[in-house]
Design goal:
Radius of gyration: 18 Å
Helix content: over 70%
Largest sheet: 2 strands, antiparallel
Number of domains: 1
Strand order of the largest sheet: 1-2
Strand content: under 5%
Number of helices: 10
Distance between the termini: 15 Å
Length: 222
């Protein structure tokens, strides 16, 4: 859950500020978004979508663990997958790799056309649709939801992730103009993501019996 929190908090500074600025400007022009309560409803809708996605992906992991692959082995494989995606996102944050959104640019364009076609949408519904915006950061956050092997834990992970993105998105108009802050936050977010990526990779290898578990001060790091 700590990984989900830091991914949402630091990732939103470097990633969401750029990607969601256009969404916020689009909503800001709608008559139904002219007060703070409307924006609170929109964010509640967005986090609701994240929660439902986390519930679904957690249930998927739980189902796979119950009927197809033993849970420790499944968690090991998915942890290694999460590590790979996390490293890719970390490199994309600092410009070494291409942004994952380029892989589904057509879906992003379709989503944008749909949102522009809405006439003064209800804030909560608009927020739920906002949560469906194809986003590499959200996809990365969903991997721990699968590895949790629990529908409820997957939902909780995504609630924490969604709440952690709120500070950046509430301050997006100010942050979008802070190039230095975004550069610094992208570097920090990249470092944190690499750290968790390494931890998840080692946890995966340990679950598969390829390396030993590592304990530090009574806590199992992997």
């Amino acid at each position: 859950m700590l990984a989900s929190f830091l991914l949402g908090l630091l990732g939103s500074l470097g990633h969401c500020v750029g990607m969601c600025s256009a969404v916020i400007i689009l909503f800001d022009r709608q008559p139904s978004f002219q007060n703070r309560f409307a924006w609170m409803l929109a964010h509640a809708g967005r986090i609701t979508t994240y929660t439902l996605l986390g519930l679904t992906f957690g249930l998927l992991g739980e189902t796979l663990g119950l009927f197809f692959i033993p849970l420790p082995r499944l968690q090991g494989l998915l942890s290694i997958l999460f590590a790979g995606i996390t490293f890719y996102m970390a490199f994309a944050f600092i410009g070494i790799a291409k942004s994952p959104e380029l892989l589904f640019s057509n879906l992003v364009s379709s989503w944008g056309r749909t949102m522009r076609g809405l006439n003064s949408p209800a804030p909560f519904l608009a927020g739920m649709l906002w949560g469906l915006l194809p986003c590499g950061l959200v996809l990365t956050a969903l991997i721990p939801a699968i590895t949790s092997g629990s529908a409820m834990q997957g939902a909780l992970n995504m609630i924490v992730f969604g709440l952690a993105t709120l500070p950046s998105l509430f301050a997006v108009k100010w942050l979008a103009q802070k190039t230095v802050s975004r550069t610094w936050s992208r570097s920090l977010a990249s470092l944190v993501m690499m750290t968790f990526g390494f931890q998840f990779a080692m946890r995966g290898f340990a679950s598969l019996g390829m390396v030993g578990h590592f304990m530090l001060a009574g806590a199992m790091l992997w």
